[in-house]
Design goal:
The complex is a heterodimer. Chain A is built from no helices and eleven strands. By secondary structure, chain B is mainly beta. The chains are: A mainly beta, B mainly beta.
Amino acid sequence: RKEVEQDPGPFNVPEGATVAFNCTYSNSASQSFFWYRQDCRKEPKLLMSVYSSGNEDGRFTAQLNRASQYISLLIRDSKLSDSATYLCVVNRGGSYIPTFGRGTSLIVHP
Amino acid sequence: ETGVTQSPTHLIKTRGQQVTLRCSSQSGHNTVSWYQQALGQGPQFIFQYYREEENGRGNFPPRFSGLQFPNYSSELNVNALELDDSALYLCASSRWGGSSTDTQYFGPGTRLTVL
C-alpha cells in the first residue's frame, strides 16, 4: 500500500458545482498535512494547511480524519480557474520526510 | 512569484553522464528541499538541506547527492544518469523553524531528459 493515496481522476465538473477529494495516508505517526495545487507544467503552490479542527479559506474547506487516516478538500462554487491537479502532502513526525500523493486532476467546464 | 529560482530550465543528457542542477532559495529562507516529479506522478522527496547539512533523505540511491552553500543556495548532483531519471526536478525553500509544518515555496523546476 502506498504511503499516500489519491484518486487521480480526472474529476470533470461544471462551473458552480461542489467537488470533494480525499487523500488517505498509511502512517499513523503523520503529523502535518497540506493541500497543494499544481497547474499544468508549473510548480506546486500551497493551497492550504489542514488542521485537526478543519479549516476553511473562501470556497475551500479542508478536513482531517485521524481515526480513518484521511484528509479531504472540498471546493464549492467551482470556477474554470480551479482546473488543476490537487496534491496532498503528509509529513511524518520526527524527521522531515514529506510525502506527496500523485495528485487528483480537476477539470471545470463551462 | 515565490522568489525561488532554478537553473537550467531544461537539460538533455545521455545515459551514464552526470548532471548538476542549481537552486537559489527565497530571501530569508535557510532550508532547501529537492524533489523528483515524473510525468503523472506527485513530487518524490529526494533530500533536504539545512545549515549546509543533509536534514532528511527520501528513498533515492547515493548517486543523488547535494550541497548547500553559506548563502543557502543549493545544488543537486546526479551521477551515472539512467533513463528513469528523466523528470522534473523541483527545489523548494522554507524557513526552518524546527517543525514539519513549515511552508515550502517551490521553484519552477528543471526538466531533465536522459536519452
